[in-house]
Amino acid sequence: MGDEQWILAMNHTQIAALKATNEYTAKFGLVLSDEDTALLLNERSEVLKKERRVEFGEGILPKLAFAFCDSPYIQQDNYVETLARLQEIFYFYKNESLDEFTDDELVEAMKELFDGSCQGSLDYMEDTGLQILAKKARFGTCFDEAEEDEY
Predict the structure, then answer these.
(1) pLDDT value of residue 68
(2) What is the spatial distance between Cα 57 and Cα 35, in angstroms, rounded to a whole number?
(3) What is the mean pLDDT of residues 116-140?
(4) Distance CA 54, CA 132 (A)
(5) What does the alpha-carbon distance between residue 110 and residue 45 come to, in Å, rounded to a whole number?
(6) Among 42-51, 88-97, 101-110, 129-138, whose mean pLDDT is lowest?
(7) Which domain of life is it from (predicted)?
């Protein structure tokens, strides 16, 4: 398979994985259109370039969609914008935490912060709660549920 065919196959896989989330997220009134999907995947490419990351497979968007779809702070009118921003924050903090956290651990921490102390504020989550988490990762301090109330 040539490079161009491989890239097309990857794009198809990413589109299919993201569109498949609609089956579950529709229960919460959240659905991505074809246009929304294209926009989010384009944003993904830009963020990966900006953060100097390489990623194979479906990417983090499906995990973010599944994790955040039941949030009381996300509605259809802010869903795409929120997913785009969550994706950006995710990749930034993967770098900031020196990849010390698995994707699932970081998504879980983001969700707990977003629905908890940040009350749906992406800015607060990014600037406060995740800063603490990243510092703990960089300086070797363990993160556990007992320290959760710090952020």
Answers:
(1) 98
(2) 20
(3) 82
(4) 25
(5) 21
(6) 129-138
(7) Bacteria
Please name the residue that has the structure tokens 């569109």: 19
Q: Give the residue from 67, 81, 62 showing the smallest Cα distance to 113.
A: 67
Going by the DSSP 8-state scheme, the letter that residue 60 receives in this structure is S
Distance, CA of 86 to CA of 93 (rounded, Å): 10
Q: Can you state the angle between helices 130-138 and 76-96, rounded to 10 degrees?
A: 20
AA identity, residue 83: L
- 3-state helix, strand, coil split of the chain in percent (to 5) is 70, 0, 30
pLDDT of 11 higher than 70: no
Distance CA 1, CA 17 (A): 21
Number of residues in the chain: 151
Under 8 Å between Cβ of 8 and 41: no
Band of residue 59 on the pLDDT scale cut at 50, 70, 90? confident
Q: What is the pLDDT of residue 16?
A: 83
Mean pLDDT, residues 134-140 taken together: 70
Per the CB < 8 A criterion, the answer to whether 59 and 13 are in contact is no
